[in-house]
């Protein structure tokens, strides 16, 4: 009896074992089916579970912590970690990051996997082999979304080594409330400006205030006029600067003469020459002047000092007569994202770069900072200020340009080699025509000497 029971028990164990094998096989079959169904997402885990079965990784992200703050980077960290359960993003925000990155590249020590930096001569880093070639990710997922200025800026010796990460507009801001109250139309051309300016003065208001102690702000107005007059072909000639004759172009003279007319006609707030940028902006928000050369940071920079109810907006620099390119905008593109050549997590960093360049994260950047990225994206559904919307309107409806260049001769010679054109014209030491002619002569006289100094002969 006992033997029979043992035999039956053995048989039962065998049956259970066989059944377990069958069930295991069925389970494997179901898993295969599930994997096939996942093919709808490319065979990858669903979003939010990517890499869940992989080993833990740390992605080190360094960034310049300045006017944009750190809110966007914290959002990037949160969203990227949510989509990659095995990844921890370590943020390193540092206002002094630019002083430290050069030595870190040189030593190869303490490198981030990806860094969001301010404008610099990054081409030197690329030529020294410090930067990862990003051409693959640039061509596959980023280039088509970048604006024209951003696309050009990314390239060095036919390869993409950086992705620009911030943008904006350099030009003119105006008192929108004042314009609407008086029924003034924002001038599209300098001819319209010339008609408007006397009306503004008749109200006891200066048409323009500027920071005389930071006179380079006039670049925001004059350089767009040069591009308007000469077109993008002339801009390319300037930035390449392969011969001194590029400075002998009427487009540059026309722009300088239009600038000179502002002072000849007394359309500038008295005392502007003694103001710094903050003081000139205070005069603007206090209604002493209707317009000011400035950039898209103006609203945020003056937030604590702007009177309640004051309304400002950016305007396109008026077009000069006979402009080849009347609708241009001076882009601030130049801040860069790089991946060090010796970064530990290269592929993960590229994935993070693509993620940061998405429509959703571009919109989030503007929402959180009130500033812009050099990508094509919409602000629809995002609550932004009237000023911010005006900046985006200019960016979306005008051709962007920059004065970024890798030409050693342009960097040596400059646009005004004979001296400070704006200061000379403002204070009357030279006329616009004299400045132009002296620039042409200086370039011709110094060309061979400079080429030799730069090792280009």
TrEMBL record:
Statement: the UniProt record of this protein carries the keyword RNA-binding: no
Gene3D superfamilies: Periplasmic binding protein-like II
This protein's UniProt keywords: Cell membrane, Lipoprotein, Membrane, Palmitate, Signal
Matching SUPFAM superfamilies: Periplasmic binding protein-like II (SSF53850)
Region of interest called Disordered, as start-end residue ranges on this chain: 32-53
Keyword Nucleotide-binding belongs to the record: no
Pfam family, one: SBP_bac_1
Family annotation (InterPro entries): Bact_solute-bd_prot1, SBP
Name of this protein: ABC transporter substrate-binding protein
Organism the protein comes from: Paenibacillus mendelii
């Amino acid at each position: 009896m006992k033997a029979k029971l043992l035999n039956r028990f053995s048989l039962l164990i065998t049956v259970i074992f066989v059944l377990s094998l069958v069930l295991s096989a069925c389970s494997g079959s179901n898993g295969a089916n599930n994997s096939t169904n996942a093919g709808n997402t490319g065979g990858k885990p669903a979003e939010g579970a990517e890499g869940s079965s992989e080993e833990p990784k740390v992605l080190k992200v360094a960034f310049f912590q300045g006017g944009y703050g750190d809110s966007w980077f914290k959002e990037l960290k949160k969203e990227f970690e949510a989509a990659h359960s095995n990844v921890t993003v370590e943020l390193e925000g540092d206002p002094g990051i630019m002083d430290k990155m050069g030595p870190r590249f040189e030593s190869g020590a303490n490198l981030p996997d990806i860094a969001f930096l301010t404008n610099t001569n990054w081409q030197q880093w690329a030529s020294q082999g410090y930067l990862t070639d990003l051409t693959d990710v640039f061509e596959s997922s980023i280039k088509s979304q970048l604006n024209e200025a951003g696309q050009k800026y990314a390239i060095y010796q036919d390869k993409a080594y950086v992705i620009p990460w911030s943008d904006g507009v350099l030009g003119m801001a105006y008192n929108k409330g004042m314009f609407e109250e008086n029924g003034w139309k924002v001038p599209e051309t300098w001819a319209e400006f010339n008609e408007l300016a006397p009306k503004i003065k008749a109200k006891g208001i200066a048409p323009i205030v500027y920071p005389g102690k930071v006179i380079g702000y006039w670049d925001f107005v004059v350089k767009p006029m040069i591009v308007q007059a000469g077109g993008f072909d002339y801009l390319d000639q300037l930035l390449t600067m392969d011969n001194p004759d590029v400075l002998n172009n009427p487009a540059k003279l026309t722009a300088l003469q239009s600038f000179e007319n502002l002072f000849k006609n007394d359309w500038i707030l008295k005392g502007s020459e003694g103001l710094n940028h903050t003081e000139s902006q205070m005069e603007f928000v206090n209604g002493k002047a209707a317009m000011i050369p400035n950039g898209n940071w103006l609203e945020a920079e003056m937030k604590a000092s702007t009177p309640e109810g004051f309304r400002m907006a950016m305007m396109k620099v008026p077009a000069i007569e006979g402009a080849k390119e009347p609708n241009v905008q001076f882009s601030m593109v130049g801040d860069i994202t790089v991946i060090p050549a010796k970064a530990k997590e290269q592929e993960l960093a590229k994935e993070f770069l693509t993620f940061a360049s998405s429509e959703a994260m571009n919109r989030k950047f503007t929402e959180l900072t009130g500033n812009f990225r050099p990508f094509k994206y919409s602000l629809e559904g995002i609550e932004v200020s009237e000023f911010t919307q005006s900046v985006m309107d200019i960016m979306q409806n005008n051709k962007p340009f920059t004065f970024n260049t890798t030409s050693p001769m342009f960097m040596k010679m400059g646009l005004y080699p004979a001296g400070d054109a704006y200061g000379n014209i403002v204070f009357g030491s030279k006329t616009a025509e004299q400045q132009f002619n002296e620039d042409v002569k200086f370039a011709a006289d110094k060309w061979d000497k400079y080429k030799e100094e730069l090792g280009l002969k």
